[in-house]
Amino acid sequence: MANVPTPHIGAQLGEIAETVIMAGDPLRVKFMAENFLENPVQFNNVRNMLGFTGTYKGKRVSVMGHGMGIPSIGIYSYELFNFYGVKTIIRVGSAGTISKDLNVGDLVIALGSCTNSNYASQYELPGTFAPIADFSLARAAADTCDRLGYHYKVGNVFSSDTFYTENAHNDKWINMGVLAVEMEAPSLYMNAARSGNRALVICTISDNILTGEVTTAEERQTSFTHMMEVAFSLV
Fold first, then answer.
1. Would residue 207 show up in a list of annotated catalytic residues for this protein?
2. Which of 122, 155, 164, 179 is most open to solvent, judged by the fewest CB atoms within 10 Å of its CB?
């Protein structure tokens, strides 16, 4: 953990907490710092990927952006786990539902991630690796949702390398009980597994792929506070 600052994070050792809540949009990170953290101090602005450390109910926690896509969060989470001593990363993001049991605004706790990514090939495993969340985090997140009365589902998501695609094949994932589509979980879960740490992805349904219902960029940035409340409850 001596190779800091890293190429993508400008922090020194000790400036990042052992628990980091991440979001793809740096402006969502700024929103969390301003609305959830006490005495936030910025530790990163490299590539405008903002990061802040403060306290939440007396507990030290950091928030940081991870950008869009499996490779992007793969870089940031690898550096946090392997160079900064981070033990837990919780991603709060958006997802499109392909389940009739989920509506816009509902939460998904991603217990597992199916993917079309080739990220796992680097490990040269003699089979297919199943990227999964830390169960203790997932269970605690579900308990918080129950306590606060938030509608949620726990299960598999499909994490895609492509946002615009020629052949979505959503019906095939629907047939396998997949709840929603997002773009980051596998590399986060694999980096956590490889480094012996913990990770969880909590998503708010931002659009319904089945019906065409969507939310605005501003709504995704500032109004998806339920998943943030659940994430901070895990600190």
1. yes
2. 164
